[in-house]
Design a protein that fits this description.
- The chain has 202 residues and is of the alpha+beta class.
- It has one domain: Alpha-D-Glucose-1,6-Bisphosphate, Chain A, domain 4, CATH 3.30.530.
- It contains 4 helices and 9 strands; from the N terminus they run H-E-E-E-H-E-E-E-E-E-H-H-E.
- Strands 3, 4, 5, 6, 7, 8 and 9 form a 7-stranded antiparallel β-sheet that branches.
- Helix 1 packs across helix 4.
- The chain starts with a helix and ends with a strand.
Amino acid sequence: MKRLLFAIMLMLPILAVAKEPLSAKYLKGGVPEENGIIVFRKSFSVPNMSTDAIYNTLYNYISKSIVEPAIHEKRTRILSDGKADGLIVAKVEEYMTFGHVTFIKLDRTRFIYQLQAQIEGNKVNLAISQISYYYNEDHEGLRGEYYKAEEWISDKEAINKKGTRLYPRSGKFRIKTIDRVEDIFKNCMDAFEVGHKNVVED
């Protein structure tokens, strides 16, 4: 009986993904691909703001609000500060939590990705790529399962053939990834709204 209850508790997050009605944004086309590589993109402009001011605002946000709170290991860092060419590149590793299963287990994964912000005049082009996950690790951070996004959350791998539902296990990764990417892009835009309300989404 104890084993049965344990199995049921572990299945709760998966069952929740399967039962909740899904927004269309999580289904076909929700995870964009370029030549078989998953790349999320967002562009916006900040009219009447200098390129240097845009750069400073965005660099400060990425370094302080994305990189600093992430998992502090060698894998989380600014790869390029963009001073020479306006291209800010950050490699980030952070925790993505799916939900608590009472006192038994914290269901989460390491979410690893590269964030690029190209500043050209008043325009900012954001891209998130090189996404992977390290899941189900032990207390020492070992013996986890490694997944590349292309092999795990793509339309082909995460959606049934009819295109009507997500596969339970990979589906929760797809949902959380789409939500997190949207959150990153929105927060990058919101970084300009203090004292500057004219952010234009392309």
